[in-house]
Task: structure prediction
Amino acid sequence: MSAPLLGAYGLVCRYGSRKVVDEVSFELEAGEILSLFGPNGSGKSTLLKLISGILPLESSGSGQIRHSGKDLSALGPAERARVVAYVGADLRADFPLTALEAVLLGRICHSGGIFRQFTAQDREVARLAMERCLCWSLRERELATLSGGERQLVAFARALAQGARVLLLDEALSRMDLNHQARMGSLLKELATEGRGIILVSHDVNLASEWARSAILLKDGKRVRSGPIQEILTQDTLEMLYPGAELLVSAHPLSGAPKVFFR
Amino acid sequence: MENRNLLRALLLGALAWTAAMAAGLAIGAVPGTDFEIITQLRLPRVLLASFVGMGLAVSGAALQALFTNPLCEPYTLGVSSGAALGAVIGSTLQLDWIVSGIAGAAFVGALVFASALYFVSLYAGRGNLTLLLAGVMLGFLGSSLVALWMAFTDLAGIQGSLFWLMGDLSRARLAGTVFAAGAVLSLTILIWRRSHELDALLMGEEDALALGIPVRSARKKLIFLTSLLVGVCVSAAGMIGFVGLVIPHFARRSAGALHRTLLPVAALWGAGTLAAADALGRAAGGTHELPVGVVTALVGAPLFLWIMLRRRETT
Result:
């Protein structure tokens, strides 16, 4: 049996003496969209930051992360960025970069040469990524002039431009309008069928359940449940997480995906 | 289209620089157009102004990126004060027997102050204001220490500290200018080669890490190179403010924010700007020339405020 696209084994992360991620293990296959659920502070974002290398595993925790069987922490930062791309909730706009310039930054991990210039190929990859993320028309605009949702499209395009097979999305669609959320959702499915593995963190469970086939439930940094999304996002789970909350889980009338409603 | 903008920016810079140099060669504290006056006094001076301006603009752009804060520059962050302090201590220790001795001492001063800021930035996290305020305080501290040191050790007393605190190009001589030119050019190229690190750092530490930049080591190397550059500039001409802040800001509008194109444009514009400011200071002062730092502050401080207020509107 071949090694999974991404494997996390016994991940631990401490902030001071508190364990924010506590012995979490999981595997992500190529073509899989995995959703991380859990209340605020359950360690979802921290987990993504450990995998992306934003939080260095060596200094802030322990455990192992493997990509196709190879140890991720043995890779240099640029090599790692070619394997794993991370999309956060916002892009900083302190400097007047245009959307295209921001997306080109995704190609830094590919560039070489003495003066490391962006090549015509880099520009082509950036253009394709922006077209797929519906933001090519914004290319000349400065980041500060874009809306929160438009910046998220640009951030998504930048991650695609990295060409990584593992995509980590941390509230990356949260400010998009309904149209863009739906379009990016189909793009996620497309990317999965192309062989990428995607991990999704979203406080909007109904959005996540529409695209993810599998899910992991985190609580206090621990993995409490994992499996197909229908088995994780259940009435039972919600009762356990939020005792007494007036919530109802019901299947989507067309897709059958589990959805959460207020009672 | 991008290339045309860039070409125009470079051309404009080169023209402005040439005009400023011509003005600088024509106007002088020692009047006259003798060949000797021009080659021995004015030529070194316009060239020194140019290379110091270049160094300040490039170090400003680098500091802005590496601290992810567009209001950074050697002067507002106090790095220049650190360099000046190093330089005055170096002169008392009579390190000036070699051309680069004072520059070396200034580099050490700049590095100490810049490293202090680096640690502030590690603990202050995303709070940009904390960093700026810490820089301003460091600047006051360094300047006061310069005055204090001069008052006790220099024959000219506290008067002598004016050279360091207001910036002054009148001491330019050929040997020092050649050294400064070589140092500024090579450091600019070394920083330019790190354009991608600077680019990624514009998006903040987390994004830079996710984009594949080894942020800590990149920042340390950039602080080292920038401190060297500030050390060279301050040891040659004292503390000159606002060139490092204003030039990168305006250069970004023509050259874009990516450093491969930004740095050459900022370097050229910085050179032209300081050469022009120095010529202006000489022309405006009559028999007493104005220190160049006074000219840059008079123009730069209001621009700083304007940039700050405009930023508030967009974010």
User: Anything to note?
Assistant: Chain B has one domain: 2-314. Residues 256 and 273 of chain B are 19 Å apart (CA to CA). Chain B has 13 helices and no strands.
